Amino acid sequence: MNQSVELPSVDRQPRVRRSTYIANHLRNMIFTGALKPGDRLPTEEQLCKHFGVSRTTLRESVQMLRVSGLLDVTPGRGSFIRLPDPSVLMKDLALLGQYGTMNLGDVNALRVLLQVEMVRLACEASAEDKKLLQGHVISRQGTADEIEETERSWHLAIAKVAGNDLSQTMLEALLSMQRTERLASFEDADEIMRTMGVQIRLNSAIQEGDKNMATRVIASYLGGSTPQFKN
């Protein structure tokens, strides 16, 4: 169970609280299967050194994951990944957003991490599975509500093609938290055209299995840098 865990590179950190940044990275590793139920996290000393933070900051990150039901923390033994309950995760995220613990920047930073990995996995899917993306075409003729719904269903279709139900549930929660801002953006004709262009480029990259292009397109669209992971 206690397998070696490969942590992501942290050369460039987004402008969010450091404790949230670390929690987001670890969440993403759990959602994408890099960390599995029963795995033990690296020691507190190892994590502090890797992320360049104090024990206090790291413990805040661990507490976020424990409250989310993603970690079992046992004094003297360490922190172990537990099987997450999607309903608990969604409720926890909603509360974080409602009470300001997780602001919109935090939400988007987590979306970047989650969706970069999603599109990478989608590139590896079969040609038959990738056909699902063709059924969610954004049109500039639609209302803001219609475009938001189509864009949401498109993102969720990518998650489905990627083959991770937990990630799909997580993304649905994050999109719901951003709905007001996303609706407002689709009142702008330029933003609609930008989104249409992104959809064409991203679908094409996924169809061709071009992981580098796909991850760059989605990260740029969401306004973040492409996370760097060690091979």
Question: What would you say this structure looks like, in words?
Answer:
- This protein has eleven helices and two strands, in the order αααββαααααααα.
- A hairpin with a 3-residue loop joins strand 1 (71-74) and strand 2 (78-81).
- The protein is mostly helical.
- Helix 5 runs antiparallel to helix 8.
- The protein has helices spanning 18-31, 44-51, 55-67, 86-98, 104-123, 127-130, 144-162, 165-177, 179-185, 189-208, 211-221, and strands at residues 71-74, 78-81.
- A two-stranded antiparallel ribbon has the order 1-2.
- It is globular, with a radius of gyration of 18 Å.
Could you write a compact summary of the structure shown?
With 231 residues, the protein is mainly alpha-helical. Helices cover 61% and strands 3% of the residues.
